[in-house]
């Protein structure tokens, strides 16, 4: 996949080699699962600068001396990305701002879906940090890493859904960031779920594994989805 995309890019740009920087929005398994494959990639046209998802490696690459308050940056070669440390969803979460396209990449901290809040105080802090960073700055789109929202306002797909025929677009706006900030500041408490128009807030208890009925529901929903993978008429 990486070789394929990089290969097309090289052909289009009449180049023989590309150096890729592999960094992470945060260290959850769904975001680092491909690391081993990338580390073992043997391609004469691709060299990989692999940056592990640790605070130390992130501080060094992004030149953030006072983690997490300082704003860092990384120059990809005439293309500077600003880096905002947003530890909360996970201890080494970062957001990236591409000055050329005015896109803010928010990782798992903000996307059209269920925003899992592991630490309420940290989430309040990092959301405010993103609001402050984007104040007076162009934000064309905010792009996160998941979609769990349906196009119908206030609704998300059940946990475990694989086939999402009417999903919300990935892009959301700074208005959504402001809405999240306001909601977190006004709720003042944990163990809360709140559905908003284009995303929802899910406070995660210390033991976040699914148990009992919730686990059964998740498993039967996934089973049904897998059985109907190529025939989704029953799932609609
Ligand atoms: Zn995550
Ligand atoms: Zn994720």
Strand-pairing-aware structural class: alpha/beta
- Tally of extended strands? 11
Amino-to-carboxy terminus distance: 31 Å
SSE order: HEHHEHEEEEEHEEHEEH
The CATH class label of the largest domain is: Alpha Beta
Overall pLDDT level: 89
The profile of the biggest β sheet is: 6 strands, mixed
Characteristics of this structure?
236 residues, alpha/beta, Metallo-beta-lactamase, Chain A, 7 helices, 11 strands, 20% strand, binds zinc ion
Summarize the structure.
The chain has 236 residues and is an alpha/beta fold. The chain has helices spanning 2-12, 29-32, 35-39, 55-62, 120-134, 174-187, 212-227; strands at 18-22, 46-50, 71-75, 80-85, 94-98, 103-107, 114-117, 141-144, 171-172, 193-195, 200-203.
Can you walk me through this structure?
The chain has 7 helices and 11 strands. Strands 3-4-5-6-8-9 form a 6-stranded mixed sheet, with helices on both faces. Strand 4 and strand 5 form a beta hairpin. The longest helix is centred in the last third of the chain and has 16 residues.
Give the topology, please.
Blueprint: H1 2-12, E1 18-22, H2 29-32, H3 35-39, E2 46-50, H4 55-62, E3 71-75, E4 80-85, E5 94-98, E6 103-107, E7 114-117, H5 120-134, E8 141-144, E9 171-172, H6 174-187, E10 193-195, E11 200-203, H7 212-227
Parallel strand pairs: 1-2, 6-8, 7-11
Antiparallel strand pairs: 3-4, 4-5, 5-6, 8-9, 10-11
Helix pairs in contact: 5-6
Bound molecules: zinc ion (2 copies).
